[in-house]
Amino acid sequence: MSASITIYVEDIATILANYNAMQVQRSVLGPPNYSDALLITAASSAKPSLTGTKEGAYTLQGLTLKLKTDGGSEQVLLFAKADPNAIVAVVEDFNAGITGATGSDSSGKLKIEGDNSGSDGSLELTGGTALSALGFTQGQKDCGEDAHVPLQAGISTYVYVDGGGLSTNYYRIRYFNTATFIFSQWSDWMVTASDAVAAGNLILAKAKLSTQDGKGLYNRGITISPVGQVVKKDDYSLLGPAIRIVTDMAGEAETNLVKGAVVDVVFEGTSIVRRITVPSTGTSFDLLDDSLVAHDPFEIKKANTPYAIRRS
Q1: Cα separation of 171 and 23, whole Å?
Q2: How many angstroms separate the CA atoms of 102 and 99, rounded?
Q3: Cα separations (Å) of 201 from 232, 236, 256, 262, 287?
Q4: Architecture label for domain 196-312
Q5: Contact 46, 61 (CB under 8 A)
Q6: Where are the domains of the chain?
Q7: Residues above pLDDT 90, as percent of the chain
Q8: Which range, of 21-25, 200-204, 280-284, averages the lowest pLDDT?
Q9: What stretches of the chain show up as alpha helix (H) in DSSP?
Q10: Residue 159, Cβ neighbours under 10 Å: how many?
Q11: How far is residue 170's CA from residue 190's CA, in Å, rounded to a whole number?
């Protein structure tokens, strides 16, 4: 599951005078209070975590702890060791009985950390008779965080993909300076943009980038701009502004594009600028596929007739 929002930054030059990134918040409940709003970006990609408020020793034998990791099915942990349970024993039981998360000793309290970094990682305590003894509450949750969305000179439109989001979620952003920690006011809440063009007329564009030593190329921007003829799908004409995607920790980035569109693809920080025709068939494609390079109408042509033999 994932959701994406398109963010338009008006007067990017003025914004960049004070800020260099955007922070993103997500709310599942939405109006009127947005009371469950969580920050889903941070200085760097991070794992979700929850820490109890009570120190051991604990009386836990026969009690249960119920939780979900990464939005999966509920898991039930039964504490079977004889009381009193020291924090070491609690951590052992947790790590033996739960998948997708790791327990540890945090100054004598139980700390639960999800195994996955980024906004697609999550923890939710759904119940159990051991919650109170450990210092947790039912419904307590946390999500992982992506790196803040970097702002770029000359780029006004940004696409942020929330790996753990749903199309029914609400989002808001504010501008942030990662050096001085100053920030702007929050924007109004927005919902995930609905697809006007039918899914059958869209195709997933992907890029996988690495450094020369084989590591994922993180935080590399790719700008995609529509050019050439107007493409029409489902009575919609493709006239939108450029979109920008950014590679994750694995060096991967992706976005949906309209099939058959002609676009310019700019790989920021390199000399690679490609004009391609988006495939009209299939479900996904590589933005660096050489077979997609579009015909350039301004390409200099050679005469298709031979030169006359020169005689002196």
Answers
A1: 10
A2: 8
A3: 10, 11, 10, 14, 17
A4: Sandwich (2.60)
A5: no
A6: 1-44+146-194, 49-143, 196-312
A7: 51
A8: 200-204
A9: 12-16, 87-97, 131-134
A10: 19
A11: 5
Nearest-angstrom CA–CA distance, 68 and 243: 34
Residues 75-96, mean pLDDT to the nearest whole number: 94
Cα–Cα nearest to 245, from 151, 163, 158: 158
Note the pLDDT tens digit of each residue in 201-218.
888 899 999 998 999 898
Structure tokens at 125: 């305590």
Question: CA–CA separation, 70 vs 79, rounded Å?
Answer: 23
Q: Are 81 and 62 in contact (CB under 8 A)?
A: no
222-265 confidence digits (pLDDT tens)? 999 888 666 777 677 777 677 888 888 788 888 888 888 889 99
Q: Residue for token digits 């350039």?
A: 296
Residue keyed to tokens 């039964």:
78
DSSP structure class, residue 206: E
Q: In sequence order, which residues have a C-beta less than 8 Å from that of residue 113 and are 6 or more positions away?
A: 47, 48, 49, 101, 102, 103, 104
- Residue-averaged pLDDT of the chain: 86
Architecture per CATH, domain 1-44+146-194, reads as Sandwich (2.60)
